[in-house]
Amino acid sequence: MNINTNYENLEQSYLFSTIAKKVNEFSNAHPDAKIIRLGIGDVTLPLCNAVIKAMHKAVDEMGNQSTFRGYGPEQGYDFLRTAVQGYYKTHNVDLDLDEIFISDGAKSDLGNILDLFAKENTVLVPDPVYPVYVDTNVMAGRTVIFANANKENGFLPMPDESAKADIIYICSPNNPTGAVYNKEQLKKWVDYALALNAVILYDAAYECFISDSSLPRSIFEIEGAKNCAIEFCSLSKTAGFTGTRCGYTIVPKNLEKLNKMWLRRQTTKFNGVPYIVQRAAEAVFTEEGQKEIKENIGYYKENAKIISDTLEKCGIWHVGGKHSPYIWLKCPDNMSSWEFFDKLLNDLQIVGTPGAGFGKNGEGFFRLTSFGSKENTVEAMKRFENAYLK
Ligand code: MLT
Q1: Among 121, 179, 245, 331, whose Cα sits 20 to 30 Å from the Cα of 74?
Q2: pTM summary value
């Protein structure tokens, strides 16, 4: 047997695993330290009531002969696809049910979708960005080129006509910077993709944090997008499903071949999301569910404000937090991202994510998340202020 040697071209471990390992080592050496984790974007609020009620009901159904369910459709039950369809309708996007594929989350689908594309494709990825886009393509041996995101362009790179790409990744609101494309900017990306006959893989995992109704929550709000884009979304951040696992991917029927191939791929390699979880997800889209998750998102947004107000006070350059759970800051005293990571962990017992882990343009930057508890966020920012208020 020969192994896939492309794995040798990857960083030694996944960014968030490296961080977890470092934090564990610190915690073992300092068992009394009260570490505050503002690193990985993992939610802390429990599932909302509407979701819990729906899950309990579904559990009971599974225990009853007449309502028990075995294998479900790999692409998701119609009740959930209909709920997703209704949700898109609220931002003026019309979808057919067979354009909606239920999954266990955006990360899996973003990786799995690559089954559909030849190895020879050139992939365009913004830098900095969520490491999964690069890693999954490196695993497959594809050539990856980068679109530079930086302070000058507000971390929103625009297409460079001289760069030729076949697969283009866009994440808006962006992980890690929190930057959001407006409709005009996204239209330029759509036109660029159409001109190149390229596909856009659009990660909308943070769309629920957008509070300005003029900003697009889906790429399908942009004219022409159904001819060139696939959208990935997840309930992880929207409804606290990081441990419950449910998401959805939209493959428009205008991309006829891809829609068919994705169905073929999923029916062969995926068993679908558990019935109980799909019922929980359906509840997110009810009136009660939407009201409750908006309260939770509001809570995280308040944390983001606490973080950004503190950074402002300390005179530390930062962006994000407004339409995103992430705050992206310039490391103080010209420290490198990992130097600042070590310093925060050792001196203040705060965990964040080094910007360099998201790409070379992230060097010298750092990401904090607002997904902690309010109490911990306030405490972390007190520590921050004591150390950095000049
Ligand atoms: C992050 O912290 O960037 C995310 O939680 C990672 C993910 O969603 O997989």
Answers
A1: 121
A2: 0.96
